[in-house]
Amino acid sequence: MNDQSEETDPAGSSPDDPADVVARRIGFAVPGELVSRAELAELDRFATDELRSRRQRCERAEEAVSYTRRLLQGRLDLLRAELSRRDDPAATETLRDLSRVLAGDDRTVSDPAHARATRIRMPEDGDRYAELLDTVVDESTLLHSREVDLATLQAAVDGFAALERDLSVLRRALFDRIDALRDELAARYKDGRAEVGELLR
User: Which of 49, 61, 96, 193 is deepest in the core (most CB within 10 A)?
Assistant: First the structure.
């Protein structure tokens, strides 16, 4: 049985943080291990080189999440095409479910200062993210979806919806860290604590 002292690790990352739980469950970099909540509160104590290193690690982790979401959205498009083709009231309802999944995309940002271009790059271990989607429904099944029954398509929509929610939670946690690190670096540039050349490296 875990005692009270095991609820938080030495770096200040709680194992109960929703994004950290999701990351461990689906095999992504854990936001709280990249930058813990305690560290977020005291970024001014970090050396500039360390801030830049943490930012780069968070950006790489976010790219993996975004790449997986792009793959997921491609598979959802295959589902949507097949469901749209079927003249079946039940298929129409499943299509509505799918539309809700696609509408859940959280690519917008509320703070213009943190607006970001969409940049999707394939991670070095990109194949394993496709394998994660295969645990929901493999791409081969979707490519032959005319032979797939509606119950299987509905299960795929439900599975992808759950994974999309997980990825969105994880992505937001990573963006929170990236934005905080960028803000601290920008502040150092403005007040002279860091050289422009250092910030652009």
Answer: 61
pLDDT digit string (tens) for 88-126? 777 677 767 666 655 555 444 445 445 454 556 777 777
Instruction: State the CB neighbour count (10 A cutoff) for residue 74.
Output: 12
Tokens standing for residue 20: 């950290």
The secondary element (H helix, E strand) that includes residue 95 is helix 89-103
Between vectors from CA 193 to CA 189 and to CA 194, what angle results, nearest 5°? 55
Give 40-69 pLDDT, tens digit per residue: 999 999 998 999 999 999 999 999 999 999
Q: How far apart are CA 50 and CA 38, in angstroms?
A: 16
3-class SS of residue 148: coil
Instruction: Quote the CA–CA distance of 21 and 15 in Å, as a whole number.
Output: 7
The C-alpha R_g of the chain, in whole angstroms, comes to 20
Give the 3-state secondary structure of residue 14: coil
DSSP track, 96-110? HHHHHHHHT-----S
Q: Which two tokens stand for residue 86?
A: 């079927």
Amino acid making up residue 78? L
Q: Where are the domains positioned within the chain?
A: 45-107+123-190
Amino acid 51 reads: L
Rounded to an integer, what distance in angstroms lies between the CA atom of residue 160 and that of residue 104?
Answer: 12
For residues 144 and 192, give the distance between their C-alpha atoms in angstroms, rounded to a whole number.
60
CB atoms within 10 A of CB 135: 10
